[in-house]
Amino acid sequence: MTAQDSAIHPIAIAPRTPASGTALAALGVASFSLSFPATAWALSGFGPWSATGLRGAVAGLLAAGYLAAVRAPLPERRHWPALLVVAGGCVLGFPLLTTLALRTSSTAHSAVVIGMLPLATAVFAALRTGRRPSRAFWAAALAGAVAVLAFTLLQSHGRPGVADLYLMAGLLVCAAGYAEGGRLSRALPGAQVIAWAVVAALPVTLLTTALALPAEPVHLGARALAGLAYTAGVSQFGGFVLWYRGMAAIGVPRASQLQLAQPLLTLVWSVLLLDEDLPAAAPVTAVVVLVCIAVTQRARA
After folding, report:
1. What phi, psi does 104 have (nearest 5°)?
2. pTM of the entire predicted model
3. Residue 120 covered by a domain
4. Is residue 115 in a domain?
5. Which end of the chain is more exposed for a tag (fewer CB within 10 A), N or C?
């Protein structure tokens, strides 16, 4: 364990069993699985910069209200570097990069590219905490990542495009934010971790909104508003509350591998909500991924 990691001392947070932690993390994954379809809906009425700015700004205002309601104290100075990583990766970088990708990529394809996120998160967590999961864990995590990567290349005929580059950059910054947020959730309640992160990003998201709204076309509609409401209230805040609480209970590496199921859930939502076609290879990939998840959850982490 690194010296910096050991400097984060757990506070008195109600203990959770591994089963409850897994359930919380799984609920977070289920919440995130709707993020891409909701973003696609938001893009039907807002430009990419407006959608990203509004998402963060609305979430920041909700988070500020929550922090005021619970009278949360300011985080200690030693916690702010990690909070800024969460803000940069999960509140600013990932939403913007994936929104830009969704202008030219289907939600189904984008979701599967992001299937590399669990492995990236586990690597970041191992580097930051010094904890090393077992070989069985790494083997299963790598197999799951290879499965989704093969699926991605199959769908893109082996030629990743600009959208894929946006998505790859997005998953890297998001993985760093996930790992730092999960680590910090040992010292702060998960709700406060994401709340302070989106509040820290509020000056940037408000400025982005103010500059983008006049410059990009706006076509208000039920779908656009529903998509924006979901990405702001759930994707950017509520889902993270569940996610970080689950990570604190079962550890970042193990929780991260539950996200192997997220692309497959998003595929289902893309068919039901956006009338996209379900790729023929999706069921096979789903079986491989579910087996990998089962192995990572039973492996010593």
Report:
1. -125, -5
2. 0.81
3. yes
4. yes
5. N
The amino acid present at 151, given as its one-letter code, is F
- Residue 41's alpha-carbon distances to 45, 99, 133, 150, 219, in angstroms, are 8, 11, 39, 28, 11
Q: Could you identify the residue written with the tokens 């992160």? A: 197
Which has the closest alpha carbon to 54: 232, 183, 215, 195?
Answer: 232
Asked if 126 and 253 count as a contact pair (C-beta separation under 8 A), the reply is yes
Is 124 contained in some domain?
Answer: yes
| Domains held by the chain: number | 1
Buried b (16+ CB within 10 A) or exposed e, 91-106: bbbbbbbbbbbbeebb
Q: Are 231 and 107 in contact (CB under 8 A)?
A: no
Q: Cα(167)–Cα(171) distance, rounded to whole angstroms?
A: 6
The number of residues making up the chain comes to: 301
Residue 134, number of CB atoms within 10 A of its CB: 13
Output 185 or 72, whichever has higher pLDDT. Answer: 72
CA distance 174 to 163: 16
**Burial class of 28 by CB neighbour count within 10 A (0 to 12, 13 to 18, 19+):** buried
Domain that holds residue 108: 17-298
**Domain-located, residue 11:** no
Q: What HEC string does 65-117 produce?
A: HHHHHHCCCCCCHHHHHHHHHHHHHHHHHHHHHHHHHCCCCCHHHHHHHHHHH
Tens of pLDDT, residues 220-242: 999 999 999 999 999 999 998 89
